[in-house]
Amino acid sequence: MDLAQEEAARSLGANQLQVFWHVTLPNIRWGLLYGVILTNARAMGEFGAVSVISGNIIGRTQTLTLFVESAYKEYNSEAAFAAAVLLSCLALGTLWVKDKVEQAAAAEAAK
């Protein structure tokens, strides 16, 4: 991002919040949205690190992926499959949002 735009906004009397809201944020919005989408996808699929670090404490540190594992190990396959379907729907929703963000970015770049 070119800092000249921020400097121009400041020289025209904008305060720091106005510069961020009207200059910085519009310039970084696609990267920011894409980062949120990728973070969401990574968080949904995280298993190993959470299991090792948090200890998989039910009701406190158990994520949905850890719940699928523990329900399956406890022979509660209905709950495990329901949680897995929910995770799949969340993943598909994330892919849909990613596709829409990419389409919007491409449409804006084509202008």
Index terms:
111 residues; mainly alpha; 5 helices; 81% helix
Explain the overall architecture.
The chain is mainly alpha-helical and 111 residues long. The protein has one domain (3-110). It has helices spanning 3-11, 16-45, 48-54, 64-73, 77-110.
Proportion in helices: over 70%
> What's the SSE pattern?
HHHHH
Rounded to the nearest angstrom, the radius of gyration is: 21 Å
Number of domains: 1
Largest sheet: none
Structural class: mainly alpha
**Would you tell me the overall average pLDDT?**
90
Strand content: under 5%
Number of strand segments: 0
| Poorly predicted ranges | none
Distance between the termini: 19 Å
Number of helices: 5
Large-scale geometry: elongated
Give a topology summary:
Layout: H1 3-11, H2 16-45, H3 48-54, H4 64-73, H5 77-110
Quick description:
This protein is mainly alpha-helical. The chain contains five helices and no strands. α1 packs antiparallel against α2 (about 15-45) and α2 runs antiparallel to α5.
